[in-house]
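Figure 6 in text form: structure in, sequence out.
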């Protein structure tokens, strides 16, 4: 078994004439926290979405747990998976969106149990017990019968984290998980993510929270214009950046 949870090799992605990812190579070790920083339009969110095939790459290869994402390897050739197979494969990669993406017509509990039952075919009784434990873990067990509209943004995001964890994913992806929150709610969501980091969950986090990156990241990746400009331990990238573009970005966000 490969020691890497995620392998990104030579990945390119364009939307029309706009090349958003221009040859990304990134290796993410199991149990480590990788934080991706960069200005708007640098390709951070697009890269994250390619990791579970929400965006199909134009060139290159992504593997999670040693398995190609969106494809099956037959001999030396890649064959694209059917949509049903992609949905099944996607359950191995938890995704927490910046705008929560909860189902408005389902209660908190039903939001969390829906995918493990429908996509993974697991027993409802077992999934429900796990969901209750997860909702307690993220601090919203008292909201189990509420609907998303009855929750604060911070509560919705914590439910979204529980929903992703319910799939027992190999990797958790967070796309700017605090950007849609009021400032006073940011801390409660970051605290849950810190707990996951402390438990050895493999996390890939796109964020603008530099202090949070310094605290939890094993590796900080700085992207600009579709390229990885610089990467390394947070002490190196954040405190002693080598590239002029990284220095310029940090000088603005750390003011």
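Output sequence:
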């Amino acid at each position: 078994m490969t020691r890497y949870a995620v392998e990104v090799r030579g990945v390119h992605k364009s939307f029309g004439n706009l090349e958003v990812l221009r040859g990304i190579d990134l290796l993410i070790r199991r149990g480590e926290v990788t934080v991706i920083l960069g200005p708007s339009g640098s390709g951070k969110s697009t890269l994250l979405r390619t990791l579970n095939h929400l965006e199909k790459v134009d060139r290159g290869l992504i593997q999670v747990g040693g398995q190609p994402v969106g494809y099956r390897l037959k001999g030396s050739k890649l064959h694209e998976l059917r949509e049903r197979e992609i949905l099944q494969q996607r359950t191995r990669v938890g995704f927490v969106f910046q705008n929560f993406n909860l189902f408005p017509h389902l209660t908190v509990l039903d939001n969390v149990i829906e995918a493990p039952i429908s996509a993974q075919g697991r027993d409802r009784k077992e999934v429900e017990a796990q969901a209750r434990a997860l909702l307690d873990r993220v601090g919203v067990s008292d909201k189990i019968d509420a609907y998303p509209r009855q929750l604060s943004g911070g509560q919705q995001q914590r439910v979204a984290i529980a929903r992703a964890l319910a799939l027992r994913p190999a990797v958790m992806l967070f796309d700017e998980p605090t950007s849609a929150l009021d400032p006073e709610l940011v801390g409660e969501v970051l605290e849950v993510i810190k707990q996951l980091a402390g438990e050895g969950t493999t996390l890939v986090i796109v964020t603008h929270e530099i202090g949070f990156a310094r605290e939890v990241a094993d590796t900080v990746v700085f992207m600009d214009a579709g390229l990885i400009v610089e990467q390394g331990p947070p002490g190196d990238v954040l405190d002693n950046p080598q590239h002029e573009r990284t220095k310029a970005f940090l000088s603005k966000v750390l003011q």
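Caption detail: The radius of gyration is 18 Å.
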